[in-house]
Amino acid sequence: MSEELKNNTPEAAAPKKEKKPRKNIFNSKKFKHGSLSVLFTVIFVVAIVLVNVILNLVLDRFDVEVDLTEGGIYTIGEEMESFIKNSDSKVNMYFATDEETLETAGSVFRQTLEFAKKAAEMNSGYTLQYVDLLTNPTFAEKYVDVTAGSMIIECEETGRYRVFDIVGDFLRYTMSDGNSYSYSEASMMSMYYQYTPVAETSIAEQELLSGLMSITKVNPVKIGVLSGFGETPCSDLTALLEKNSYIVETLDIDLAQSVSEDFDVLILNAPSIDYSTDAVNKLDTWLSNGGMYGKNLVYFAATSSTSSTPNLDQFLAEWGLQVDEGIIYQTDPDYFYYPYMYYYRAEISEDSEYYSSMQLDPAASFHAVGVRPVKLLWEEKSNFVNTPIVRTYGETSVICPFGAPEGWAIDDAADKGQFNVIAESKKIRYDGTTPYYSRIIACGSENLFIRDFLSATNYNNAEVAISVFNTISGNAGESIKITPKSFTATTYEINASQQGGIAIVFIVIIPVIIIITGIVVWIRRKRL
Question: What's the pLDDT tens digit per position in 144-166?
Answer without folding.
Answer: 888 899 999 999 999 989 999 99
